[in-house]
Amino acid sequence: MPLDKGRIGTRFPVFLAHFLDGRKLISDRKNIMSSSEREPNNRGSLRLAPNVEELEEHKRKVPRQFVNFTFYRARPEWRLLSESDKQDCKRDFIAAVDGFRASLLIHTYSTVGLRTSADFMIWRIGCELDPMQAMTAHLNQTSLAKYIESTHSLLSMTKRSMFIGTECADTTESQTHVVSGEADYLFVCPLQRTREWYARPQEQRHEMMEENLRIGSKYRSVKLHTTYSFGLDDQDFVVAFETDKPADFLDLFQELRETKASCFTLRDTPMFTCRKRELAECLDALG
User: Fold this and answer.
1) Per-residue pLDDT tens for 113-170?
2) What angle do CA 209, 214, 219 make, to 5 degrees?
3) Residue intervals in the chain for CATH 3.30.70.1030
4) Beta strand ranges found along the chain (DSSP E)
């Protein structure tokens, strides 16, 4: 069966696999966020993650990436500036961000009117942390830095897949390469499981996540990205949903709240609703 690009129904098994434990289970269903090869003559079964040699080979083929979502808010002093000063600040900031697009995959979103704690968000993806730090240091030296502040930052890593941009020569999604930043809306939240969840037998967690799998298969307009934060940040995972239909995401998330696995969620807030915009549009919306 051909892969249904951009639909959660073809990749929701990752929601099952990512939350079981460090020995990630792989479903035989064809989904772009899972990259382990299936056991021959064993369709429909689950198996443990590959051995060390398989993992090392996979790492050589698919580099792991750092993923960061940083949210910014304008200070009141920004709106007191003259229009010419604002334009100078915005040009300076945009040039600084553009200077790092060669080393980082960057997407920008506006949150104006959607959340009081943030006005815009920058989603950054890269194989090293140094470019992210260098970019942040450079942004801190821009004239706009005096008038904005970072209110939230979520750091995580990929495991079995990597993000690619639509500007790549071959933007076809596969089991290991996922196109990001295509949909109009992005919903982002941290996810932290309870200690009791990790103490549960693997079979019980598998059974509970199968329920999530069945629910997710109904919402084919929603694309799920799950990245890992163990030891990198306060949460266990960062979960991001891309869609052009916010109502579908709302219905999906409401149903997931009612599952057994949800009882073992320690935290999945704050939730951010983000509208994809060019950076210039995000800054113009600051007023």
Assistant:
1) 999 999 999 999 999 999 999 999 999 999 999 999 999 999 999 987 777 765 554 5
2) 120
3) 8-62+179-272, 66-159+275-284
4) 66-74, 105-110, 120-126, 148-157, 162-164, 177-179, 185-193, 223-228, 237-243, 265-267, 272-276
Q: Which two tokens stand for residue 135?
A: 């970019």
The two tokens of residue 153 are 């930052």
Identity of the residue numbered 227: T
- Dist. CA 181–CA 279, nearest whole Å: 13
Q: Check: CB of residue 155 under 8 Å from CB of residue 230.
A: no
pTM of the model: 0.79
State residue 124's pLDDT score.
97
- Say whether the peptide bond before residue 270 is cis (omega within 30 degrees of 0): yes
Answer for the pair 252, 215: CB distance below 8 angstroms, yes or no.
yes
One-letter amino acid of 3: L
One-letter amino acid for residue 108 of the chain: T
Q: If one looks up domain 8-62+179-272 in CATH, what number appears?
A: 3.30.70.1030
Q: Mind listing the pLDDT tens digit for each residue in 16-49?
A: 334 333 333 333 333 333 333 333 343 333 334 4
Pick the CATH number of 66-159+275-284 from 3.90.550.10, 3.40.50.300, 3.30.70.1030, 3.30.750.24: 3.30.70.1030
